[in-house]
Amino acid sequence: MKRTLVNETLLKIGEEVKLYGWVDTKRDHGKITFVDLRDFTGKIQCVGQDKMSELTTESVVEVMGIVRKRPQNLINPNIDTGTIEVEVGSYKLLNKCGELPIPVDSTGYEIKEELRFKYRYLDLRRERMQKIIRLRSKFIEGIRKSLFKKDFVEVETPILTKSTREGARDFIVPSRHFPGKFYALPQSPQQYKQLLMTAGFERYFQIAKCVRDEDTRSDRGYEFTQLDLEMSFVSEEDVMHVVEEAVVSAVESLSAKIKSKKFQVFSYKEALEKYGSEKFDLRTDKEKEDGVLAFVWVNRFPFFKKVDVKDAAEVEDSKSGYTFTHNPFSRPIDEHLPWHLKGEHIEEILTTQYDLVCNGYEVGGGSLRAYTEDVLRSTYKIMGYSEGEILGSVGHMFEAFKLGTPPHGGIALGLDRLVMLASNEESLKETIAFPMTGNGKTSVMDAPSDVDPKLLSELGLSISS
Ligand code: ASP
């Protein structure tokens, strides 16, 4: 007999069905046992005469029985199948659930993070987490649909790569074949997506994993996911327009509310003057209560800033005391290109950077890019790099730029942050299936962990402390 899903039972009154799922709740009334069976489509009450009392909550079961209408006075308005129930003929206990280390029938906010993440597979069973992870998937579907309609091509870029220098420390991976040499995990697909423009794809996107060795904060770990895109022969407005359409269509597919489908644009200077910050919130108090999403663009940022000596990655990235504010691969605005090329008025040079802000959070950022050698070389010169250091860092990009790279620009949106806002949560970790704890430990599996000394010696490594 074929499986029936819980949400199909309403159409099967009087018929025999076979259901699979988890014991959501169990109530023993002497000879009769009531079990609410849960699958991914919903819950249904199953009634056992002299059976099922051995079941524990969260056990996995197969239930065979007849779908019956409930008498009027026993209707449960709280579940979709509240007008029916299953009269159980037989059942199989497929896997008995032991004592639960954490409850799964609450919101979960009351449970310690470490415990939630150790048993994340249980934690994810709770209704709130099921909703968020499914909303995340729908959001990605909405974005994909919108971009595919515009002829974007989804391309994967490498995970083992060379340092991409985007303002954070790299995670590095030792190489067995080249002892003493290391790969870096990508801080973003920035250079590869630009090379895909050289390759002639013109419209690229990817749901990309990025890894940055930044101090973990209470609401984020080392990994995050970006919706990364790049386009050739575009203006800033072209990229912004594509993003607006994709974000609006994805948000609408979640039935979330959006303040305006056209996102206002503020320059960085205007934002500071008007709101005192480049991350501001345009919502009224009423809109905040209603969970409305308010998007705005901020552009015309300074290209460079003085290095923050407390930021180790900034100190390392810069040799001159100046570093980029957003992205070393950006282009300055046309009016400031002459200054940029001559290394003059460094603090006044504005970049083509545009950031997307939602409800006071930065949810994305991008720019038009350097696509000729002189512009990118000047950026690194301003940061104090010698010719040798420049070639070592971005020499491969210079080669590509000399082999027919079109003008291009793009953006990356923080998917975790967008999902957090769309689901009205306050931590990025609530939107990630298997997040890290605040001190950088993985969910469920205990990493980082020791490795076999044999592995280390194959890699030519030894631990000094
Ligand atoms: N690569 C940039 C980042 O990760 C985004 C972009 O400019 O496309 O922040």
Automatic annotation (TrEMBL):
SUPFAM superfamilies: Class II aaRS and biotin synthetases (SSF55681), Nucleic acid-binding proteins (SSF50249). Keywords: Aminoacyl-tRNA synthetase, ATP-binding, Ligase, Nucleotide-binding, Protein biosynthesis. It comes from the Bacteria. GO terms for biological process: aspartyl-tRNA aminoacylation. One of its GO terms (cellular component) is cytoplasm. The keyword ATP-binding applies. GO terms for molecular function: aspartate-tRNA ligase activity; ATP binding; nucleic acid binding. InterPro entries: Aa-tRNA-synt_II, aa-tRNA-synth_II, aa-tRNA-synth_II/BPL/LPL, Asp-tRNA-ligase_1_N, Asp/Asn-tRNA-synth_IIb, GAD-like_sf, NA-bd_OB-fold, NA-bd_OB_tRNA. Transmembrane segments: none annotated. Residues 133-435 form the Aminoacyl-transfer RNA synthetases class-II family profile domain. Belongs to the class-II aminoacyl-tRNA synthetase family. Type 1 subfamily. This is Aminoacyl-transfer RNA synthetases class-II family profile domain-containing protein. It comes from candidate division WWE3 bacterium RIFCSPLOWO2_01_FULL_41_18. The lineage of its organism: Bacteria, Katanobacteria.
